[in-house]
Write a structure and sequence with these properties.
Elements: E1 2-7, H1 14-25, E2 31-37, H2 47-58, E3 61-62, E4 69-70, H3 71-79, H4 81-88, H5 93-98, H6 108-113, H7 122-130, H8 137-144, H9 151-156, H10 166-184, E5 189-195, H11 206-222, E6 227-233, H12 235-244, H13 247-253, E7 259-260, H14 266-278, H15 281-286, H16 300-310, H17 316-330
Parallel strand pairs: 1-6, 1-7, 2-5, 5-6
Antiparallel strand pairs: 3-4
């Protein structure tokens, strides 16, 4: 497994990089890119949002109308190729299972016969087997995401109805995520992208929650299997994480050292500005009467002043917002 830390200011393109990575890797059925946004994370509540984001992403439909499936179904198909082959012979293939068209192909027997699956979390194995039951796959998906189910639904899934404390729910989330990653094993390359990590901070608890996040991320990275764990951070948060986490954790999270997004140069800023103003149909038509290097309808003095004032923290987002404000003034 590989750990990557990318560091840059807000609007520098960190999330865009993840989106492009998703487009590139998404073409490979043996790989999956998953973005885990930690906006709901806090001290003592890190694994639960990881669990929710992980399975929310994996349960989202993907592909076109003819090949539509989910990331979770692809991963299970890679892990259990004989089950996948049986599914493809039924009505609607893998997606036919979720739509109730291919209900005779059960995943449970394949899970039971697999020696490695026997070592996994019992409730996770049971819930995964219910994914191929059209009457239960809805509440099975809710359980995977960590939703709190009522006693009736838990009974239908043949799970314990005992209520859990907040500490126990956090521990269960850790067990479910870790067990699922163990199930994936070497069958699928997972690229897990932690984003919006700054949202977990709260007052004087910053260092403690950052240390807790680093421990969780390193745990995920340490589970056997081809995996890339990407953590996107702002510059100040990267500094805070370095102070909060131990050296070994940081080395694992950034296998080859952190990658820093550099601030934009004058030439790069001009390319973004010209691309932006040329994307507006009216401007594009009118700019045909000006030289290609023209800044019209903006002016060079405006751009020079903007660059001089912002060059130490200049990002594409800053530039696009400045162009929008200037357009409004011109209008």
């Amino acid at each position: 497994s590989v750990g990557v830390i990318s560091v840059g200011e807000a609007g520098s393109g960190k999330s865009l990089l993840i989106a492009r990575l998703r487009q590139h890797v998404g073409k490979d059925s043996n790989a999956s890119v998953i973005t885990i946004r930690l906006r709901q994370g806090r001290l003592g509540h890190i694994w639960q949002p990881i669990r929710k984001q992980l399975f929310t992403e994996l349960l989202r439909p993907e592909g076109n109308s003819e090949t539509r499936t989910t990331g979770l179904m692809r991963i299970l198909a890679n892990r259990f190729p004989q089950w996948a082959a049986a599914c493809q012979g039924g009505v609607g293939g893998l997606m036919g299972i979720l739509q109730g068209k291919n209900a005779n192909t059960k995943l449970g027997p394949y899970l039971e016969r697999d020696p490695q699956s026997a070592m996994l979390d019992f409730e996770l194995r049971r819930v995964l087997s219910h994914l191929t039951d059209p009457e239960l796959n809805g509440i099975a998906a809710d359980w995977l995401r960590g939703e709190q189910l009522g006693e009736e639904d838990l009974t239908r899934l043949k799970l314990s109805t005992e209520s859990l404390s907040p500490v126990e729910r956090e521990s269960r989330a850790s067990e479910v995520v870790s067990s699922f990653l163990q199930l994936v094993g070497n069958s699928t390359l997972l690229v897990l992208c932690f984003d919006e990590v700054e949202a977990i901070q709260s007052g004087n608890w910053d260092k403690a929650v950052l240390r807790e996040f680093a421990t969780a991320a390193v745990t995920i990275q340490g589970i056997e299997g081809p995996r890339v764990v990407i953590t996107t951070l702002r510059f100040n948060l990267h500094t805070d994480l370095r102070e909060a986490a131990d050296v070994t954790s940081l080395q694992k999270l950034a296998t080859t050292g952190p990658i820093f997004f550099k601030m934009l140069t004058w030439e790069q800023m001009l390319r973004i500005v010209h691309a932006r103003i040329s994307s507006e149909p009216t401007c594009k038509l009118e700019r045909q009467h000006y030289p290609p290097e023209s800044d019209w309808p903006l002016t060079r003095p405006f751009l020079e002043e903007f660059y001089r004032e912002n060059k130490l923290a200049l990002t594409p987002r800053h530039i696009l917002m400045a162009c929008a404000r200037k357009f409004d003034q011109i209008k």
